[in-house]
Amino acid sequence: MPVVGVSGILRKEQEMWESTDKSLQDAFQDLNALMSKAKEMVVLAERMRLKLLSGSNNQTSGTNDEDMGTKEEMQDWLLSVGIASPVTKESAGALYHQQLSRQLADFVKKPLEMAGGMINLIDIYCLFNRARGTELISPDDLRQACSLWEKFDTPVMLRKFDSGVMVIQNKTHSDDEVFSRIRSLVSKPDALRTGISASDAAMTLGVAPAMAKEHLLAAEGKGLVCRDVSPDGFRFHINLFPEISPDDRYLVKDHGIYSMWISAISSS
Amino acid sequence: MQMLGEFKLPHFFNYPPYFTLQPVRDTREKQIQLWKELILDYCRTQKVFVIGLDEDFQLFSNPAIERTLSHESREAFLSALVLEGRAEWLDKGHRKCLILWHRIQDWADLILRFVKENGLEDSVMTVEEIRSGVESRGTELHGMDRTILMRALKLLEHKGKLAIFKGTSADDEGVKFSI
């Protein structure tokens, strides 16, 4: 057997490949074994689910307390491994989601305060799961837990903006208060000249830029501000359109926001 | 106040949101109304008959604030004029728009008045003479758009006020008035 020279090197390479190949095969053996076991597990879980389903439909079955307890446990266990139980989907919410909901309401208090009263649902998803460490919840679990808040007394609520963005906010949060703060912001001389961006609003309102943008869009919807889209970016100005007379486009009333705006832009 | 040629621009021409198509309905309606009127008045003062969407139309930009109307906005505002009967698309692709700062009926009335004032009730003229002849000088007919003139003449022909015919030269068509 040549151990020196090029053929020696080549042979060593070959041996290395062969041994790697073998370890890979061994590893995959284990995986294959795991896969077939997993298949069995899924079949088992399905069978149990069906049993529960038939069990609940069977009115005459003598349901003593113990049986009911086991059944609920079983449903919770199934839910926690991600298998939805058809028995409880329509009901007010499985025990699992109720507990999660309460837990979430508590957890959310601190981040909400730090975020200025409104926080993106996606951010909560990250924060909450990070805090849990293990037994992570799915986005669907989160949404369901939030929607359960309506059913009991919490200081927080889920809110969906027109843009589709979902946030958690305090029930005491007032849109009008935010709008009046936005109005004063866009009425300042600098803002009259150049408008404001979402980042500008974020700094004044003390919220994340993404939240500030939602507030600005909501204010736009209410007719408080108008958008200005250009290569400079996406900015908002105070809405002057209502101030312009439909009968005389050159008319400017004294002491209105329109004349204030004209002074502001002429002084630059 | 800023001027564009001889046209006096309003203050809101310097308002950046005026150059962004507004999404909120009430705001947008007001914006469209302002643009429609501005376009008609500007075209009337400057005797602009056709606007090409892809061309540099002075009214659609304000270099002082570095804003220009997007193609989408231009089409939106011109379409609003078309809907009102104050403009017409000259092509399917909506690239060129005929601006009717006088409606066709108004032009027809102007032609009738012109004919009466110049004692041309039974005479014959070429189409070109109507818009560039000596008599037309000093009137609104002078330098008017040929397409619009033909439309107005056809309207009057339909009402039996005149007859359009092909001239002896290959060049121009003629009109026989019978008012």
Description:
The complex is a heterodimer of chains A (268) and B (179). Chain A folds into three domains: 5-79; 89-170, Arc Repressor Mutant, subunit A; 175-267, Arc Repressor Mutant, subunit A. In chain A, 60% of the residues lie in helices and 9% in strands. In chain A, a hairpin with a 2-residue loop joins strand 4 (225-230) and strand 5. Chain A is flat, with a radius of gyration of 31 Å. Chain A is built from ten helices and five strands, in the order αααβααββααααββα. With 268 residues, chain A is mainly alpha-helical. In chain A, the strands form two sheets. Chain A has a three-stranded antiparallel sheet. Chain A has helices at residues 5-57, 65-80, 95-114, 121-132, 139-147, 175-187, 189-194, 198-205, 209-221, 257-266; strands at 118-120, 156-160, 166-170, 225-230, 233-238. With 179 residues, chain B is of the alpha+beta class. Chain B has a three-stranded antiparallel sheet, with helices on one face. In chain B, strand 4 and strand 5 (67-68) form a beta hairpin. Chain A binds chain B through residues 195, 220-221, 223, 226-230, 232, 235, 237, 239-242, 244, 246, 249-250, 252, 258, 261-262, 265, and chain B through 1, 8, 10-12, 14-17, 19-20, 22-24, 26-27, 30-31, 33-34, 37-38, 66-67.
